[in-house]
Amino acid sequence: MKNPPETMFESAFAEDTYKGLTSYPKYLLSKYIYDKRGDKLFQKIMDMPEYYLTSSEFDIIEQNAHSIIKSFSSKSGFDLIELGAGDGKKTKIILNKLVDENIEFNYLPVDISQNVLDELKESLRNEIPEVNVEVQQGTYFKTLEKLSEYNTRKKVIIVLGSNIGNLNHKEAVDFLGNIAEAMSEEDMLFMGFDQKKHPQKILDAYNDSEGITEDFNKNLLVRINNELEGEFDIDNFLHWETYDPETGTAKSFLVSKKQQNINIKKIGLEVNFEAWESIHTEISQKYDDSIVNWLADEAGLSVEKSFQDRENCYKNYIFRR
Ligand code: AVJ
């Protein structure tokens, strides 16, 4: 039934899919949701009323823009490095404010997708042509490493959208630690963390009535079908969300509605699903001040300041080394 390991896999996606679906319990990695279709679905998620994260962070940045950029500024100018830039909707508030106040800076959006960077650059040329943009295609760490090597200017690193929430605490400490290593004493990190709140509000954000999040989650199966010659019938799985208020972890699953065997030809795998067996696909971690302080401490960072929205849904923190 399980031919490979000896065979070389054609891609990391193929290998990780093989590993995840031959594990018990089964899992798939959420980073693979984001192909072209996944990117589009995530854009739609960010526009849903249930997905409060976007508007909460937007409000925080809008209401505190002055104080945020005041802490960023330095006499000799600085580099604003954004990890996982996306469409830049929230960053543009900061960019506009910096331009308005004649502050000297370069904007360096980092993303793995050149396509995302091209679109961002184009939209900035139209909307805020005063900004000096230098897009950086690559992984976060390779880029940070490169930038900290030849770069002597003050660095302000920003990570918005509670993107860290897809990492478990150990991975989050490694992520923050890697950023900390690239930082010198004057540098700072500005980062968004979705907060613990009424569990129903969290469940609703990850299980909308229109089924957009369901389609987003199921895009993993669509990708396996398209890229690995999988034979999943998408309708035979349901999207399931849980939230544990003790750990603050929201988890997404795909649950098999019946016993079924699924062929995935390109990785030479036939996967058996028992009725109601799950595939774990994503975590979306929620935080409070004590968790954030602990993560920062473990990574060699300290919280200098934080900003929150009126409803206490979401927080942005400024860290220093
Ligand atoms: C992009 C990781 C912040 O976990 O809230 C949205 C991804 N998943 N709806 C999140 C996501 C389902 C999102 N992050």
UniProtKB/TrEMBL annotation:
Any Pfam family hit: Methyltransf_33
Residue intervals of the Histidine-specific methyltransferase SAM-dependent domain: 14-320
Coiled coil: none
Transferase listed as a keyword: yes
Entries under InterPro entries matching the protein: EgtD_Methyltrsf_superfamily, MeTrfase_dom, MeTrfase_EgtD-like, SAM-dependent_MTases_sf
UniProt keyword list: Methyltransferase, Transferase
Cited SUPFAM superfamilies: S-adenosyl-L-methionine-dependent methyltransferases
PANTHER family tied to this protein: ERGOTHIONEINE BIOSYNTHESIS PROTEIN 1 (PTHR43397)
This protein's name: Dimethylhistidine N-methyltransferase
